[in-house]
Amino acid sequence: MGSRSIKVVLATVGVLTLASVGQAVPAGAALTPVLYGFGSNQAGELGNGTTTASLSPTPVTGLPGTVRQLATGLQSAAAVMSDGSLWTWGSNYYHQLGYSSSASTVSTPRQVPGLSGVTQVALSGEGNGYAVESDGSVWAWGDNSHAQLGNGTTTPSYSPVRLPILTGITQVAAGAYYALALRSDGTVWSWGDNGNGALGDGTTYNESLPEPVPHLTGITQVASGGLESFAVRSDGTLFSWGNNGSGELGNGTSGGFSATPAAVPGLTGVTQVASDGWATMAVAGTIMRAWAWGDNTCGELGDGTTTSKLSPEPIGLVGVTQVVMGQNFLLQTYSAAIRYDGTLWTWGCNPFGQLGYGAVTGAIHTPTQVTSLAGVSQFAFGDDSSGIFHPGAYGLVVGSLPATVPDLHGDSISQAGQALNAAGLVFGSVTYVVDYTCTNIGTVTWQSPAAGTRVNRGAAVSIRIGTAPRPPRECL
User: Fold this and answer.
1) Considering the entire predicted model, what is its pTM?
2) In this predicted structure, what is the pLDDT of residue 473?
3) Disulfide engineering: 188 pairs with which of 18, 117, 155, 213, CB 3.0-4.6 Å?
4) What domains, with CATH codes, occur in the chain?
5) How many C-alpha atoms does 10 have within 13 Å on its Cβ side?
6) Are 446 and 429 in contact, with CB atoms under 8 Å apart?
7) Hey, which residues does 474 pair with through a beta bridge?
8) Per-residue pLDDT tens for 110-140?
């Protein structure tokens, strides 16, 4: 696959609506979305207070409320909360967490000081981050060796600095030592390293201050896989530019680069795009089908083969609301998709359990559902590599660990307790009611939530137990 910068993870963008999991949930029993992590955890990126790897989803601890948007970077992670605060955790080697810390790793989320009203965050695979505030301003921090902070210098900063020039920004995408910003008027701005034409200005000259990308208008999303850039236009056209070493630009060729944006042929109705630096996926068409192209060494294109593709081809996933791609230091790549029903599907290489199956497996060449999760609204892959001798990968997901309420009718309280324990649930209220039919003495006559309801693991189920009428009244 060639030699190139590889410490790249695409940060997910935007916020997706939590979808129904297919069955009505009574009041008080709704599935509550929580941020979970799984995979390797060398720098505490799973955010659970440890540096211990986990093959099963473990909750991120210490976050105050609901996660609005999620991002991952080089051994690091970030979450925008519903109150507009920004929290980060993981490695702080390049000050990519946005604050000074005496520890090189932060295993429990901490709030980034000096920022408020944050609407979106992006982390790069090279050790820096970006935040967009509700007033349209952009703030950056971390490594600045290629002027990727966009403030006219190459001086790093451990705390957020506001970018000049930029106003009315709605989204930022972090590339390999460069960044893209989408303005509310549909224009795109870029800055930082431009060695592969990723800034889209027709040159290969670096820019230390943001500049507009020529000829791009009506854009609704920007993305980067590392050394290549993408933009989705409101009419469903997808544009690509930058590096094309593996055919990731989708223009039917491989090798070299393009310094100016060009429409990707063969795709219409595109709504979202993601890239891992080797391959690319997009959601397109009225049935929201996933399309993929580029390198396929790990089967990350999801077509059941390991044959690379130079042009977009549809794969067998429809109803897709978000696609995600990632890679690690070993050049292993992997993919994910969230469907409209809140299910998460993953595939590709899985050496660290980052696909969420609860086990380390060989390469998976077709999309496979992660059955332990439901109601998924966001997902991101992260690179946990600290060098070729310490590679790693992890996943972070906003969703629920569902349990199905068993049918307790006719069970004794002991039997009901065993059934709830086996399902990962607990007793709520236990009420004894007189059973004048004498047919349910000592057994469950009623339960809430009802049998078959999907709830969070650990949820409480209330029951009523029948008791015999007191003499002299007789059974009916």
Assistant:
1) 0.86
2) 61
3) 213
4) 34-400 (2.130.10.30), 413-467 (3.30.10.20)
5) 33
6) no
7) none
8) 999 999 999 999 999 999 999 999 999 999 9
